[in-house]
Q: What sequence folds into this?
């Protein structure tokens, strides 16, 4: 479950990334492309398969559940076992962080490590897709994926009436049952921001823990749950039953919306799905006075 304060460039999400010459876009250096890839990042795994590099993947971490037929191993992306990774005989390892001596172990045997940390902006996410394309010999395909991401996001945003996007609606993003949330400058906060939503946790790029009283006092119009199902088990019914929460507009109006926890925590090719899921909620919004 691929993240904050860089908002510049999001207004251009419908444009295609540029800067490469036509000859560069139409060709890749296949001789330098990785042939045995280990992915320790669910976002990278999704990207690899989306750009057509799936047949070069020999192993992925235990949290890489998309696609379902990826060669999953008992690897931890958070605390990788360098010996287990090297046992797959990779020529490229993609990870979001260099922990547990991974980089040192790979460097000792000449295996390339591509570090792609949690994206801090949509532009960062697009650039990571293209970096994976460069490393795998799928540059053109990665650029096409980025174009599709931009177009899909733009379409989802434009389908929400401008009146709703400009009405200053607020939300509480529940990251876990202890009421950690997301500021508007986080990656997920920027996703909400594209649709005009304001975080009750403020505009920072932090993930603050809010008190029960603070959420009630902020009175959000929407509550989005990234901690339901296997991610925490929180249900809309449980939220409604919390002491005092029956006074919150989102609760009174049944606007408690579970989010796919994978979509909410990754920053790869399925970003348009995340935006569409939020947009669908907004399109159904009816003001209390209507």
A:
């Amino acid at each position: 479950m691929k993240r904050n304060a860089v908002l510049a460039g999001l207004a251009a999400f419908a444009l295609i990334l540029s800067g490469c010459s036509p000859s560069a876009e139409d060709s890749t250096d296949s001789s330098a492309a990785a042939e045995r890839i280990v992915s320790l990042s669910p976002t990278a795994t999704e990207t690899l398969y989306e750009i057509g590099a799936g047949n070069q993947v020999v192993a992925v971490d235990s949290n890489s559940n998309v696609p379902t037929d990826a060669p999953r191993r008992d690897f931890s992306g958070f605390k990788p076992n360098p010996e287990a990774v090297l046992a797959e005989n990779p020529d490229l390892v993609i990870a979001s962080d260099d922990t547990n001596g991974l980089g040192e172990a790979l460097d000792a045997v000449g295996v390339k490590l591509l570090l792609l940390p949690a994206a801090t902006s949509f532009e960062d996410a697009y650039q990571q897709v293209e970096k994976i394309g460069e490393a795998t010999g799928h540059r053109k395909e990665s650029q096409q994926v980025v174009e599709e991401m931009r177009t899909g996001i733009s379409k989802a945003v434009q389908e929400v009436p401008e009146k709703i996007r400009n009405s200053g609606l607020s939300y509480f993003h529940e990251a876990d049952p202890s009421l950690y949330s997301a500021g508007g400058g986080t990656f997920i906060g920027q996703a909400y921001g594209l649709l005009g939503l304001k975080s009750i946790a403020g505009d920072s790029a932090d993930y603050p823990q809010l008190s029960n009283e603070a959420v009630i006092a902020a009175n959000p119009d929407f509550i989005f749950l990234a901690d339901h199902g296997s991610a925490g088990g929180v249900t809309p019914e449980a939220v409604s039953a919390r002491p005092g929460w029956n006074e919150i507009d989102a609760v009174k109006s049944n606007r408690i919306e579970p989010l796919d926890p994978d979509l909410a925590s990754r920053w790869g090719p399925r970003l348009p799905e995340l935006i569409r899921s939020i947009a669908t909620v907004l399109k159904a919004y009816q003001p209390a006075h209507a």
About this structure: The chain has 13 helices and eight strands. The longest strand covers residues 170-174.
